[in-house]
Amino acid sequence: MKYYIIAGEASGDLHASNLIKELKQLDSNAIFRCWGGDLMEEQGATVVKHYKDLAFMGFVEVLLNLRTILSNIAFCKKDIMAFQPDVLILVDYPGFNLRIAKYAKQQGLKVFYYISPSVWAWHESRVEQVRRFVDKMFVILPFEKEFYAKHHIEVEYAGHPLTDVVNDWKMKHVKNEEWIKQNALTSLPIIAIIPGSRKQEISRMLPIMIEAALPYQQHQLVITGAPSIPKEFYILFLAGLDIKILFNQTYTILQHADAAIVKSGTSTLEAALMQVPQVVCYKANPISYRIAKMLTNIKFISLVNLIMDREIVKELIQHDMTVINIRKELTQITYNKLRRREIANDYNDLIALLGTNGASRNIAAKMWAYLRP
Prior knowledge:
alpha/beta; Rossmann fold; 2 domains; seven-stranded parallel beta sheet; six-stranded parallel beta sheet; 18 helices; globular
């Protein structure tokens, strides 16, 4: 069977790669043509567009790159029709993927959506686009099934795939001192700095994150480098400081971390699953933020708090993301034993709520059940 999959960012590449791995177990004749990244390619997919060329986030950034985005949409439509897939699988990335869903449905193609757009957060009217243009929605957050049910749309939930990713990694990796030596780190505990995977996010947030963490002399700072961003770009923000930048080692860094400063996104859930106390940060273009603020309808921005429906990790957004505020919370999650114990208990509740193991395998099985002859 022929599958066309579109993932527009690093987290989508991760989840789509695991989905491809499981679909290959069920369909020995599977052929995958994709928009995604290195992880999908490692699973044998032909990647026609890399997500690093698609990373436009925020209203202003989208407007500034509108010509490129429209060109990508036009190319995608032609490429899909030339490939003639048995199914189109869209992975998150809603601004792009919902447009492609409409086109594909009009062409009579079967459309699956894996990892729902955040229609519960803003643009709830997009629920109607899901109803009209998506044959089956597969969600990864527990509350999304209830949300869609209120709109009389049946969706599939089979757990969060990140749970398996982290658990599988933990089974294969034991905390050891050799890693410390190999990366020329000291014996001091680590404060992980996770500034995101897009240049515009890193430029806006990394300098503030670094300045906030510098006074913690009893710790060493380690930046998690995004695979799509060259090391030279990070060095621009270090001002000669001896801070390590390690690529493709986020989980190992978190495994050794005492605390973390994390850009809102998938990394917040990864830090929680790795049991690392964290402070969540986000700062957008001021105009984009004002527009988003008017359109959104959510209490929290981090996945951890959204899933739990209460604040278990501190969120510092836009004007609240200051050096002083980060330091204040970082001190609490680093040195306050009661606060650290409270976070650990909340993380355990989160893991219990996410529930089912084998999410990628279960979703692949559900997709195959809908597709097989």
